[in-house]
Amino acid sequence: MKPASILAAACLVLALGAGSAAAQGTVKIGVIAEFTGPFADYGTQIYNGMKTYIKLNGDTFGGKKVEFVVKDTTGASPELAKRLAQDAVTLDKVDILAGFGLTPNALATAPVATEAKKPMVVMNAATSVITKQSPYVVRLSHTLPQDTMPMAQWALKNGIKRAFTLVSDYGPGKDAEAQFVKTFTAGGGEIVGSVRTPLANPEFAPFIQRATDSNPQAIFVFLPPGSQTIAFIKGYEERGLKQAGIKIIATGDLTDDGVLEAMGDSTIGLITTFHYSFAHDSPENKAFIKAYAETNGTKLRPNFMAAGGYDGMAAIAEALKKTKGSTDPDALMAAFKGLKLNSPRGAIMIDPETRDIVQTVYVRRVEKVNGQLVNVEFDRFPDVKDPGK
Ligand code: PHB
Questions:
Q1: Pocket of ligand 1, beta carbon within 6 A
Q2: Protein residue closest via CA to atom 3 of ligand 1
Q3: Please, what is the Cα angle at 199 between 194 and 200, to 5 degrees?
Q4: Rg of the chain's alpha carbons, rounded to an integer?
């Protein structure tokens, strides 16, 4: 992309609601996320989730009207993400930074949050260490160790003793691998091999072959959802792993609700652990799904990133109510700590010590229900903290 078009994509400024409120009556949120390129659904889902919260709850909290300044990182682009965050703070005068689908973009922005003293609300990026990079980071999504530990425990309980790990070769993948190996071996399991696949354009066939050759009972997988998870499942199907009796176990990133239909029926029966399912049976989730479709149309099915955007916006709204509209960064951070919300995923809490999320992790199986592929929850691990801390 040419610099001019990056700028054009990055400078989309969007105010919700009619007319512009007086400057002192608004709170500006810089939404920095992936809106174009191979991860375009990440930013779109996050922002759709934020807008869904506004649709259901209005746009004014603690007397302040919310205004969004949206900036596109165009993918995993740490330098661009950092510059966009600096622009948001210095030129657009945002009060809060939000968004962040991908870890590299969140990690690059954390020093800007510290320097400018702006709360940074992470709505997906899930590498454990992100919250440690700035006292102004709070996370409303998940961490890979948090979703992985229950998977390793469930596998051991269900007779899996020999596993191979296959993860994407960057922060969340390395976190998932480390946690799986730790919990699985501590419980008596054996790791028969491990591979890490490149974040950009991986070719899965040789990796799947290596996994098959080491004859595991199961392959534990973390891949960022989208074209990669579609390609991986295709390879799994084509290379006859299912027929060979090799199971796939994974965090729910693999069976992302937004991508599941595109992956097709070969996903049926896959077991994953995760914090959000489109099929989660609760009044809060039903209201969320209905409002999401009314706000954003039905092209995308809301997924965990949409839930992260929705809950991140809910946390900002609750914090503003507590501070009575003050955007003082330390007052907002104090308001985030210990915050409890009834999320579409269930009850969630922000750990006051770590500013990271505490939540139920569900065990789910892909099933076809009323003609739709969904992740049906059938077991749960309540109140899971990030074990990486
Ligand atoms: C991340 O980059 O932190 C990330 C991306 C996609 C996921 C989870 C984590 O599904």
A1: 102-103, 125-127, 172, 224-225, 253
A2: 125
A3: 135
A4: 20
368 contact partners, CB below 8 Å, separation of at least 6: 265, 268, 374
C-alpha of residue 173 to centroid of ligand 1, in Å: 8
Kindly report the protein residue whose alpha carbon is nearest to atom 2 of ligand 1. Answer: 102
Q: Please determine, for residue 2, whether its predicted confidence score (pLDDT) is greater than 60.
A: no
Expressed in angstroms and rounded, the spacing between residue 90 Cα and the centre of ligand 1 is 28
How is residue 356 written in tokens? 């990271």
pLDDT of residue 11: 42
Residue 172 Cα to ligand 1 middle (Å): 6
Q: Is the pLDDT of residue 21 over 80?
A: no
Average pLDDT of the chain to the nearest whole number: 94
Is the pLDDT at 40 greater than 60? The verdict is yes
**pLDDT for residue 22:** 38
pLDDT digits (tens, 9 = 90+) for 186-229: 999 999 999 999 998 889 999 999 999 999 999 999 999 999 99
User: Which of 129, 146, 253, 273 has the most ligand 1 atoms within 8 A of CB, as the residue to mutate?
Assistant: 253
Q: How many Å lie between the centroid of ligand 1 and the Cα of residue 225?
A: 8
Checking if the pLDDT of 254 tops 70, the result is yes
